[in-house]
Design brief:
This protein is of the alpha/beta class. The chain folds into three domains: 3-243, Glutamine Phosphoribosylpyrophosphate, subunit 1, domain 1 (4-Layer Sandwich), CATH 3.60.20; 250-442, Glucose-6-phosphate isomerase like protein, domain 1 (Rossmann fold), CATH 3.40.50; 449-589, 3-Layer(aba) Sandwich (Rossmann fold), CATH 3.40.50.10490. Helices cover 37% and strands 22% of the residues. The protein contains 20 helices and 26 strands. The strands form five sheets. Strands 3-2-4-1-9-8-10-14 form an eight-stranded antiparallel β-sheet, covered by helices on one side. Helix 9 runs parallel beside helix 13 (402-422). It is globular, with a radius of gyration of 25 Å. The structure holds 5-amino-5-deoxy-1-O-phosphono-D-mannitol (M6R). 5-amino-5-deoxy-1-O-phosphono-D-mannitol binds next to helix 9.
Length: 607
């Protein structure tokens, strides 16, 4: 999501910056811009759309110079417009910044520091540019440090000031930034891919560090403003590897992104003190919220399974009758929808034709319709009367992974927001939120078992069929696990609620038909164990997803993947990762094209 490139040296900066942006295209973007020092001034050019549009525009912009910064923007705050594209300036054009990340308290900052400033864009980044301008007294490093000390949020940042030519200040907190070290030149970027053609020697900034880079020196300061002696690392990756940040596939990178991006889904959207969630995008008064008597989730594929988790969450926390509907079915029924129904249209791309048609139908029938979407400015985001971006960042692999977990996280927050109206106490809400905040670390514990899961995948990869079983909140997890496996490995896989197996699917079981069951320690654990015994009695090989420390799990299964315990409602945020890794490794071991599986498209824009 978003990309930064900077250059300071003796070569012409513009082609280096434009080519650098091209190397970052894989991250996804919808506008781009560049700024260059030129004769004591800073010149900026921005364009909406592809880098080719920017490249065309700069041809007539007469931008010549050897120091500059550039950016590709993937919209988060504000639509896709030239004004919203980076680089951003303050009131004067002598300061420019490019920024990745989110400034959470931008409204407060604007109120506190920026009276009398003219803000031209809808972005949080422009507020940061103005803030640096407020603190600027001839020293960019100090101004950046002072501004950042007021900021709550995340940033990868580069800044230049016309008063200090031949200097770039860079800073990082929660959004990566790398400095490439060449011969009398430095490259700065959000990952190594833009600099690999020029240098393999890099320094990775750590959180809280600020760098002052000039033509002949690079000083890096830690949070206490002490100069750091940073190690220059030699990168052996090629460009494709760098884009995947060293992972073999985008899918694997995106699976590993989850502990980071799930934080982006929840950050700034709750209050521990009130035990409550506050999703401003809901755009409903308390009175309107009280009018809601029913909730409907509309979505397809993986987003549908996220919606199913949302159903459990809404029923349990908000006490509202909730249905999750496959969008393509909903539109051709005569669904019972009225002005007391709240509909969530859930979609990674925001462009899924069936979901769009279904939400239009719900709107026609007078429902409150809200979007839960990843791609900013997409059709669903525009056609709904409010909603929430899930902030998963660009998802490039066709098989959805991190978008699913972020959808689930947002749905749980929505369920809590409604639950706190009358059903959930402050203490219960706080307990749920504290458990949610522990999820990123718990996700990491699952990801750390990737090699072990690979060994299990190796053992089962040649089976032709399998069944996933789950109960309660883990039934949608089983459905998602089966979808993931079939999508990328082409192994025939189905999912059933554990209790349903004896009503038919059990006829399939034999020593050639493995079961992958989620049997974590929750209120349905004993029931699930009975269902597994039924499968075991038919000689089906059993792979279990079980709670850490559960000794019985080992006894009744052939292989176990242990996951950390969490609150039952939050289990999909942990358990699903084990199944994603199982599908991924199976497909890789079978030699399949994991990122681009046959017959599938990332965005299904036809009915
Ligand atoms: O962009 P959307 O979330 O609306 O897409 C919905 C489905 O097409 C999508 O989840 C699909 O099932 C993926 N291939 C799942 O990995």
């Amino acid at each position: 999501m978003c990309g930064i490139v900077g250059y300071i040296g003796k070569k012409e900066a513009l082609p280096i910056l434009i080519n650098g942006l091209r190397r970052l295209e894989y991250r996804g973007y919808d506008s781009a811009g560049v700024a260059i020092f030129q004769n004591g001034k800073i010149k900026k050019t921005k364009a909406v759309g592809k880098i080719d549009s920017l490249s065309e525009k700069v041809k007539t912009a007469d931008m010549v110079g050897t120091v500059g910064i550039a950016h590709t923007r993937w919209a988060t705050h504000g639509g896709v417009t030239e004004d919203n594209a980076h680089p951003h300036s303050g009131c004067q054009d002598d300061l420019v910044i490019c920024h990745n990340g989110i400034i959470e308290n931008y409204r407060e900052l604007k109120e506190k520091f920026l009276s009398g400033h003219t803000i031209k864009s809808q972005t949080d980044t422009e507020i940061l540019a103005h803030l640096i301008e407020v603190f600027y007294e001839g020293d960019l490093l100090t101004a950046v440090r002072k501004a950042l000390s007021e900021v709550r949020g995340t940033y990868g940042l580069v800044a230049m000031h016309a008063g200090e030519p031949n200097k770039i200040v860079a800073a990082r907190l929660g959004s990566p930034l790398v400095i490439g070290v060449g011969e009398n030149e430095y490259y700065i970027a959000s990952d190594t891919s833009p600099m690999l053609a020029h240098t393999k020697n890099v320094v990775f900034l750590d959180d809280g560090e600020v760098a002052e880079i000039t033509l002949d020196s690079m000083k890096i300061f830690n949070v206490d403003h002490k100069i750091m002696d940073k190690h220059v690392e030699k990168i052996e990756w090629n460009e494709a590897q760098a884009q995947k940040q060293g992972f073999d596939h985008f899918m694997l990178k995106e699976i590993f992104d989850q502990p980071t991006v799930v934080k982006d889904a929840i950050r700034g959207r709750f209050s521990l003190e009130d035990g409550a969630a506050h999703l401003g995008g809901l755009n409903m008064t308390d009175e309107q919220m009280h009018q809601v008597k029913r909730v409907v989730m509309l979505s397809c594929g993986t987003a549908y399974y996220a919606g199913l988790v949302g159903k459990y969450a809404f029923e349990r926390l908000a006490g509202l009758p909730t249905e999750a509907d496959v969008a393509s079915e909903f539109r051709y029924r005569d669904p019972i929808i009225d002005e007391h129904t709240l509909v969530f249209a859930i979609s990674q791309s925001g462009e899924t034709a069936d979901t769009i048609a279904a939400l239009r139908e719900a709107k026609r029938k007078g429902a409150f319709v809200r979007g839960i979407v990843n791609v900013v400015g997409s059709s669903i985001a525009r056609e709904t009367d409010g909603g929430t971006y899930i902030h998963a960042g660009p998802e490039l692999a066709v098989a959805s992974t991190k978008a699913y977990t972020n959808m689930v996280a947002v749905l749980i927050l929505y369920a809590l927001q409604f639950g706190r109206l009358n059903r959930v106490s402050v203490a219960t809400g706080e307990r749920l939120l504290r458990a949610l905040l522990e999820i990123p670390e718990k996700m990491k514990l699952v990801l750390a078992q990737s090699e072990k899961i690979k060994a299990i995948a190796q053992k089962y990869k040649d089976y032709k069929d399998c069944i996933f079983l789950g109960r309660g909140i883990n039934y949608p997890v089983a459905l998602e696990g089966a979808l993931k496996l079939k999508e990328i490995s082409y192994i025939h896989s189905e999912a059933y609620p554990g209790g349903e197996m004896k009503h038919g699917p059990i006829a399939l079981l034999s020593e050639n038909f493995p079961i992958i069951a989620i049997a974590t320690k929750n209120q349905l654990y004993e029931k699930m164990i009975s269902n597994i015994q039924e499968a075991k009695a038919r000689k089906a090989p059993i792979i279990l997803i079980a709670t850490e420390g559960d000794a019985q799990a080992k006894e009744i299964s052939d292989d176990v993947i242990y996951v950390p315990q969490t609150m039952e409602l939050l289990e999909p945020l942990v358990n699903t990762l084990a199944l994603q890794l199982f599908s991924y490794h199976t497909a890789v071991l079978l030699g399949k094209d994991v990122d681009r599986p046959r017959n599938l498209a990332k965005s299904v824009t036809v009915e």
